[in-house]
């Protein structure tokens, strides 16, 4: 077997070099052979890791050439083990691109089943709870009980979902503060997974747990929509319980992250979520289902905290995509190809296909300012219609319309962080970066008592004081 794989790999490598007309085919074949070689390696862990990297290299190269092909993202999900968050990202992406890989609905269960059954214990608690919450949402949405029964009673599953969601959200703020820059890449992947969950992981067909996802039916082309909705029992799609739960999970995550004023490590997360909202707000049928489950007020305050130190506002007050550099941000590569990033990037944004896989995630010092500009630009795009956010070109400040002004609960770990009881962790922790608000901002948050959960009004006062100083 080994002899065959080595011989086949050598032949494919030769064809790749000598027959460029079929380059895409040779690249994927090389990835397949690397994956097969990895799969049969049981003795030498080092050899297994080497072949995993070889296979990942070829599949990444292939996905750069065909970013809307779900099959390639599925293969990358298999190679992402044991990183469960990255696996979740790749699996969900393989279902939420223009050419989804339907078989991923079965193989994704190899990630979810051990976690839901309680046999997976190697993950960090926060990662385990996050993936478990998504696993339960996926199973309850995509399992057709005429073909396959749920692994547990539906009520029991939803009770476990509530526990996992609560555990994840209650530790999220401290986790971000503790991991600092290390959370930048996972933060973007968490945001993308949450967005894909709101699409019910690309659900386009009715089953025993409801019709096609309301956002998928809204964003798909008319011809595809007619095909996918042929089994639907309703003229107008209505949000399912899974969609509502996924939207609530995303909203609560957004609220926690949006309160981390001055923390540059949450900018990749915000970049992703605001990109999603920019796409959704451009579709009237989609935004009506999402507009009430997004923390507009907190996002406006986060944007104001970024706007205070930003200099070139003319660049964000434009419809033109900001290009301070021709190098895509690391999370741009993760966003590329998704249904909801269609037309977000300029057509030549990813022309640097020669960029190595490692270089795509390499953080440059200038990227903090680039992300700040991108997030502010996305925020400005959300103000164009004036329905949710508004922007004052004189004061350079964002505000929320009265209809969408509301407060959000603060989870226990957030409250502990703000009250200053965990001395090593602050609400605006930004170890390794200078792009923070001043100490006055931090102290104003640590002066709160345990029982004084900060409201949007508290946050408004803090940002206003900073703007005036």
From TrEMBL:
Residues 425-436 have a biased composition (Low complexity). One of its GO terms (biological process) is nuclear-transcribed mRNA catabolic process, nonsense-mediated decay. GO terms for cellular component: telomerase holoenzyme complex. Gene3D superfamilies: Tetratricopeptide repeat domain. Residues 1-18 form the signal peptide. Keywords: Signal. One of its GO terms (molecular function) is telomeric DNA binding. The keyword Ribonucleoprotein does not apply. The keyword Signal applies. Residues 58-339 form the DNA/RNA-binding domain. Pfam families: EST1_DNA_bind. Residues 449-460 have a biased composition (Acidic residues). The lineage of its organism: Eukaryota, Fungi, Dikarya, Ascomycota, Pezizomycotina. It comes from Diaporthe ampelina. It comes from the Eukaryota. InterPro entries: DNA/RNA-bd_Est1-type, Est1/Ebs1-like, TPR-like_helical_dom_sf. This is Putative telomerase-binding protein est1a.
């Amino acid at each position: 077997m080994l002899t065959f794989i080595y011989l086949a790999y050598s032949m494919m490598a030769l064809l790749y070099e000598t027959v460029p007309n079929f380059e895409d085919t040779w690249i994927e074949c090389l990835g397949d052979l690397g994956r097969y070689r990895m799969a049969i390696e049981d003795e030498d862990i080092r050899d297994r890791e080497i072949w995993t990297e070889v296979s990942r290299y070829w599949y990444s190269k292939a996905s750069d050439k065909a970013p809307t092909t779900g099959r390639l993202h599925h293969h990358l999900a298999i190679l992402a083990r044991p990183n469960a968050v990255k696996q979740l990202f790749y699996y969900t992406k393989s279902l939420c691109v223009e050419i989804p890989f339907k078989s991923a609905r079965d193989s994704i269960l190899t990630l979810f089943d051990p976690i839901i059954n309680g046999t997976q214990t190697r993950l960090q608690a926060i990662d385990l709870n996050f993936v478990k919450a998504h696993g339960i949402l996926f199973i309850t949405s995509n399992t057709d009980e005429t073909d396959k029964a749920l692994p547990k009673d539906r009520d029991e599953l939803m009770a476990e979902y509530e526990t996992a969601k609560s555990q994840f959200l209650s530790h999220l703020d401290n986790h971000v503060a503790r991991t600092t820059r290390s959370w930048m890449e996972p933060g973007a992947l968490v945001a993308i997974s949450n967005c894909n969950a709101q699409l019910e992981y690309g659900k386009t067909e009715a089953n025993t747990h409801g019709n096609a996802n309301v956002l998928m039916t809204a964003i798909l082309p008319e011809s595809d929509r007619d095909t996918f909705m042929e089994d639907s029992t309703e003229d107008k799609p209505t949000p399912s319980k899974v969609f509502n739960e996924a939207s609530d999970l995303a909203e609560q995550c957004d609220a926690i992250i949006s309160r981390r004023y001055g923390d540059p490590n949450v900018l990749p997360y915000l970049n992703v979520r605001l990109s999603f909202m920019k796409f959704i707000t451009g579709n009237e049928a989609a935004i009506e289902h999402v507009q009430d489950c997004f923390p507009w007020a907190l996002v406006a305050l986060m944007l104001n905290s970024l706007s205070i130190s930003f200099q070139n506002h003319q660049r964000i007050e434009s419809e033109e995509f900001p290009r301070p550099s021709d190098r895509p941000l690391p999370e741009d590569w993760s966003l590329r190809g998704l249904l909801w990033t269609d037309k977000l990037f300029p057509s030549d944004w990813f022309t640097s296909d020669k960029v190595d896989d490692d270089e795509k995630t390499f953080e440059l010092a200038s990227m903090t300012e680039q992300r700040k500009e991108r997030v502010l630009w996305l925020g400005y795009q959300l103000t164009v219609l004036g329905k949710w956010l508004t922007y004052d070109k004189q004061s350079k400040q964002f505000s929320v319309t009265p209809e969408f002004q509301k407060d959000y609960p603060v989870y226990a770990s957030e409250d502990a962080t703000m009250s200053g009881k965990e001395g090593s962790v602050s609400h605006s922790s930004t170890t390794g970066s200078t792009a923070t608000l001043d100490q006055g901002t931090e102290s104003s948050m640590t002066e709160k008592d345990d029982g004084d959960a900060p409201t949007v009004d508290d946050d408004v006062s803090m940002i206003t004081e900073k703007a005036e100083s």
